[in-house]
Design brief:
This protein is of the alpha+beta class and 300 residues long. The chain has 3 domains: 7-92, no CATH class; 107-169, SH3 type barrels, CATH 2.30.30; 177-276, Alpha-Beta Plaits (2-Layer Sandwich). 48% of the residues lie in helices and 18% in strands. The chain is built from 8 helices and 8 strands; from the N terminus they run αααααββββββααββα. The strands form 2 sheets. It has a 5-stranded antiparallel beta sheet with strand order 4-3-2-1-5. A hairpin with a 4-residue loop joins strand 7 and strand 8. The longest helix is centred in the first third of the chain and has 28 residues, at 12-39. The radius of gyration is 31 Å and the shape is elongated. The protein starts with a helix and ends in a 24-residue tail after the last helix.
Length: 300
């Protein structure tokens, strides 16, 4: 038995395979131990849990890759063979993988978005929950639901999209986006009073009051990095005239995650106050001027 084991271990290929398996198994065990040791000292709801998991995985993977490389490449000749095989493999149908890795490097270094940001690209919108080497994972928002509501679906996209599709970041630099509520009222209604009601509904909202200082500060920081145009953070009502009604558009800044909640609260307040002030919301109506005669025309 010992002679068989000796002959087996004397074979360079077998020895490298055994060592490689041991390195991979030990690396997986070490990763679990490190995660257990670290996560038992961090609260489950801490924002650092995600970072610890990713950092531990990267460190263990890097060390494992280094040990595997040292096992298989021990001479200059081995290195040349390994590099040749690697080059041939990369040249064969790995364009998407290389693009994904390049995209990951761009995301990590350039930081067009981070975990937690709400982005939209290629017709997909969602909150970033993970940035991997090859793929970015999103918690989908919108789709068949209105008002930027979470759908509950997890979407993964290739990191190569960073070079192919426009990227919209809702929350990367500024703590707010603008939203608008359009309300048509009849010409007989008190439109000046309607403007006051709509403006007060947004300005007096608790979410709006809480957002203003954060929005002002984020805009100040963004001005240091980009040529961001200074826009008014106050809620404003714009008036438009149509053939049928007066169109009032309420424009206001809102937290990205509270867009639907904020719109609902303001809409309820506007409807309640309009009813109290007898302001009528207009709707499209059709007037029939003349019914066609059902009798046949008399012959001459």
């Amino acid at each position: 038995m010992s002679e068989i084991l000796s002959e087996f271990w004397a074979n360079v290929l077998y020895r490298r395979l055994v060592l490689s398996i041991l390195v991979i198994v030990v690396g997986a065990i070490v990763r679990r131990i490190l995660l257990w040791f670290a996560l038992t000292r961090i609260p489950e709801d801490s924002p650092y849990v995600y970072s610890v998991r990713k950092l531990t995985g990267y460190i263990v993977s890097l060390v494992t890759a280094f040990l595997l490389f040292s096992i298989w490449v021990q001479q200059v000749g081995d290195l040349s063979v390994a590099l040749g095989i690697l080059g041939a493999g990369l040249a064969f149908a790995l364009q998407e993988v290389i693009g994904s890795i390049a995209g990951w490097v761009t995301i990590i270094s350039g930081r067009p978005f981070s975990v937690g940001d709400r982005i939209e690209t290629g017709g997909i919108k969602g909150d970033v929950v993970d940035v991997g080497v090859l793929r970015t994972t999103l918690m989908e928002v919108g789709n068949w639901l209105k008002g930027d509501h979470n759908t509950g679906r997890i979407v993964t996209v290739s990191n190569a999209y960073i070079f192919k599709e426009p990227l919209f970041n809702y929350s990367g630099r500024l703590a707010y986006i603008y939203d608008e509520i359009i309300v048509p009222i009849t010409y007989e209604s008190d439109w000046k009073r309607a403007i006051e009601i709509m403006h007060a509904a947004a300005s007096n909202n608790a979410h709006y009051q809480e957002l203003l200082p954060k929005a002002t500060e984020s805009r100040r920081r963004a001005r240091r990095e980009f040529a961001v145009k200074i826009t008014n953070l106050e809620a404003r009502v714009f008036v438009g005239l149509t053939d049928n009604w007066i169109e009032l558009g309420l424009v206001y800044p809102v937290d990205t995650d509270l867009r639907r909640v904020f719109r609902n609260e303001i809409s309820e307040e506007i409807l309640t106050r309009f009813a109290e002030e007898s302001i009528v919301i207009a709707s499209e109506t059709v007037s029939i001027v003349r019914f066609p005669s059902s009798q046949p025309a008399p012959s001459s």
